[in-house]
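Retry 2 of 3 after timeout on previous attempt. Resubmitting structure tokens to design endpoint.
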């Protein structure tokens, strides 16, 4: 009877190449197991996650833990050494040491058995590992260098078309080919370039100029401008109602000065744009540099506002963002009360000061839709009138025996719901993270295969995915730290 050794299979996919597909890897690993006498008892799979992002590979980390906690396998079978990880030789020790102590070896289809017990085997493994890690570093450098070159040449790098502008495309000979309006989908040829031009929608251009002029020359707030636009049924950038966040975003956008900017947010894992606008290495792969200096190309397209107006708008925005008001009370019922007219939530708001010192200044709960978008009347209720009545009513209810029993049952049910939902929530977030990491890894590893004209669109898409990844990671961190009650 043939003796088989227990093993697990590990699959990691980061590109859409056939040899990297999960089905292809699993088939080759299964053949390896049958040929060399291994019995696969479990599979671990991380789809679409870079080999350099080990902490974001949940299945890989679970496999490392299982080697010690379960201790029921003696080998990890992979398609290639880089599927196991693209970490450098220093980080490799963090993951290999627990496996070696547990008596687990690594066996790959491409390189064969990795002997971590032998000096020559360890040396060969580390050299190979450094080479695979270096591939990612070089890819990062070459990709960002191309993006910087395109940005300095004034080419749009795949960013969304700002409100009030269209895209004008040119062929390789510099001939004007077509105009694409904001929001329209268009797949350009690889050698075409684009620049921003004032929108053919005259209303959008006039709206931008009106916003800047009105904000600078009057005492009106961003919220009041949004209310005015909604009242006049002017379409917002996303086609829905205007709110003050739309107004502030537009007033901050340097594109309306005719500037093209690249790199206002984000940084790469290995490289970033330095203060001089050139390629610079990140401080470390463990703590990427966050000071991503933007590249600014003045006079790149037709401006919609002049420098003086734009500067005045920035000064007013900065002044209002740093203004310090008096002490604000806590609104106990903010977000709980509902508007009886539209069903929207009521939020706390400080009332205007009285005409005389003897007249009190009241606080209110006001309809949020009225305050933000102006789509509901300015309905409000004074806090000193509604709060005492509701507090008295709640006190009478919850101090009764029936109310206390109901409250205890509700709290116990809520606690159990929180406990049950935490694993599912973490699992959902990890699945979202894996999907985003797959997109980032595929995009990054395929950048060198793209034509130069396609780099701008690819870079913008990668920036969006990285932002999504950071948001999901923040939610994961919050979920891990939170405990019910």
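Retry 2 succeeded. Sequence:
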């Amino acid at each position: 009877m043939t003796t088989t050794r227990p093993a697990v299979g590990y699959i990691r996919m980061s590109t859409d190449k056939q040899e990297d597909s999960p089905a292809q890897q699993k088939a080759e690993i299964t053949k390896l197991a049958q040929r060399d006498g291994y019995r696969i008892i479990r599979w671990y799979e991380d789809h679409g996650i870079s080999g350099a992002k080990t902490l974001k590979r949940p299945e890989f980390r679970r496999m490392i833990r299982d080697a010690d906690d379960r201790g029921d396998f003696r080998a990890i079978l992979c398609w290639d050494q880089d599927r196991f990880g693209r970490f450098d030789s220093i980080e490799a020790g963090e993951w290999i040491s627990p496996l070696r102590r547990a008596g687990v070896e690594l066996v790959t289809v491409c390189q064969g058995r990795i002997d971590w017990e032998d000096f020559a085997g360890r040396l060969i493994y580390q050299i190979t590992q450094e080479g695979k890690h270096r591939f990612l570093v070089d890819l990062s450098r070459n990709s960002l260098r191309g993006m910087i070159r395109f940005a300095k040449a004034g080419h749009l790098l795949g960013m969304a078309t700002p409100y009030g502008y269209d895209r004008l495309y040119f062929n390789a000979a510099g001939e004007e080919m077509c105009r694409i309006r904001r929001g329209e989908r268009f797949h350009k040829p690889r050698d075409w370039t684009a620049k921003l031009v004032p929108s053919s929608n005259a209303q959008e251009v006039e709206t931008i100029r009106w916003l800047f002029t009105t904000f600078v020359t009057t005492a009106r707030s961003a919220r009041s401008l949004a209310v005015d636009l909604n009242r006049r049924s002017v379409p917002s950038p996303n086609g829905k109602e205007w709110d003050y966040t739309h107004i502030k975003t537009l007033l901050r956008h340097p594109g309306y000065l005719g500037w093209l900017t690249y790199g206002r947010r984000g940084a790469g894992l290995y490289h970033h744009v330095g203060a001089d606008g050139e390629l610079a290495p990140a401080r470390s792969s463990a703590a990427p540099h966050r000071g991503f200096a933007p590249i600014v190309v003045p006079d790149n397209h037709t401006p919609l506002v002049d420098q003086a107006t734009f500067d005045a708008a920035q000064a007013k925005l900065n002044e209002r963002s740093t203004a310090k008001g008096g002490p604000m009370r806590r609104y106990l019922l903010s977000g709980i009360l509902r508007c009886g007219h539209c069903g929207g939530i009521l939020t706390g708001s400080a009332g205007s000061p009285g005409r005389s010192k003897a007249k009190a200044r009241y606080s209110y709960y006001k309809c949020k839709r009225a305050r933000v978008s102006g789509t509901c009347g300015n309905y409000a209720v004074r806090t000193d009138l509604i709060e005492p009545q509701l507090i008295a009513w709640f006190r009478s209810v919850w101090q009764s025996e029936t109310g206390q029993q109901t409250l205890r049952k509700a709290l116990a049910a809520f606690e159990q719901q929180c406990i049950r939902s935490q694993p599912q929530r973490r699992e959902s977030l990890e699945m979202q993270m894996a999907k985003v990491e797959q997109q980032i890894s595929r995009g990054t590893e395929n950048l060198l295969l793209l034509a130069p004209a396609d780099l701008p669109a690819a870079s913008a898409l990668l920036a969006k995915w990285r932002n999504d990844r950071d948001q999901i990671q923040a939610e994961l961190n919050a979920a891990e730290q939170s405990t019910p009650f």
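Attempt log closed. The two ends are 57 Å apart (CA to CA).
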